[in-house]
Specification:
The chain is of the alpha/beta class. It folds into three domains: 88 residues, Alpha-Beta Plaits, CATH 3.30.70.260; 86 residues, 2-Layer Sandwich (Alpha-Beta Plaits); 217 residues, Rossmann fold (3-Layer(aba) Sandwich). The strands form four sheets. It has a six-stranded parallel β-sheet with strand order 11-10-9-14-15-16, with helices on both faces. A four-stranded antiparallel β-sheet has the order 2-3-1-4. It has a four-stranded antiparallel β-sheet with strand order 6-7-5-8.
Amino acid sequence: MAHLLLMSFLGPDQPNQFNRLMRVLDRHELLVLDVGQAVIHDQLTLGIVAQAPSIEAQALAMREMLLISQEIGLTVRFKPIEDAEHQRWVSEGGQRKYIVTVMARDLSAAKLAVATSVISKHGFNIVNLSRLSQREGLGGSGAMSCFEFEVKGGSDQAKALKMECLKLSSEHALDVAIQQDNIYRRNRRLVCFDMDSTLIEQEVIVELARAAGVYDQVHEITERAMRGELDFNESFAERVKLLKGLSTEVLDQIAESLTVTEGADRLIKTLSALGYRTAILSGGFTYFAEYLKDKLGIDEVHANILVTKDGKVTGEVQTPIVDGERKAYLLREIAKKQGISLEQVIAVGDGANDLPMLSLAGLGVAFRAKPLVQQSANQALSNNGLDGILYLLGIREEDQNRLIGAKGTGE
């Protein structure tokens, strides 16, 4: 018999507690097999699994633990563990670990209950839980809140869980993402963004059409293309032709009126502080992408060049057109140039023409996307800002604040 013991401690957190408990185990020659600790509101929860060399050593250690716990105000409970139970626990260490990220603007107990019920329904067991957003004051702040769950389960279960999580987005205004907890999750190095309706709220070609007086025709073609109902290249050329004769003075006016998407500025600043490379891969136009590059501090831009002559738009665009396949090609080339694997790439977009790069990247995020795109991408964010991507990387809000503050760009 192995003389295994689980010791559970609960009470006020104080300095030097853990050290004193370890010294007791050392005096009685108990071997520590596992340990876990959490502190919330200065209240400690600590668990220790230890193996004693004999039943006498175990009894002496338990007696001393009781005395020390009483002295420092902790409640302690002991549970003997059978050898078979411990071996089962050890074998479960081979199960795949996943990270489930839950975020919402009003992350109530009801929403957490909905998310965790879906996790349990698909056979996952929660083994750890932590808060990534800042601590809430009385009454809450209404700001985005985020919790990260570490769970264990099978890959088949993960696929089913992901599909059900998409329903939570529309039904409960709740974003739930599930990722395998592997070496790449916290080691991404490149982020490639779509521009229109992703980094900015508008579709630029629609704004150009509005200025040219052809809004209805272009808007209808754009919507059908974004839903995947039309070939992108053909629809794009058709829309650009409708802009023929538009004054180039309008381009400046539209650029200055663009609305940067919520959270984009914070996201780019944080990524930059962490040394990420950022790129715009857009089916829109370089004129506006370059404007955003300078405004947000993005590293590089790949988009379509709108041909102009004598101060007028000609209705033509230079080839090759940046369509879905071109975006995927560019993403692959940038990663190769940076000397990183595709697993280290994040792609973010909202339309059907973003799907090739979303599926190629290690982390593809459908941002406020059409249903077709949400179902096909790795992850979907629909109810929060772009900075929600930082939570998918496991970056705590307090660390985000330190990073952008250190760069002199704190908000």
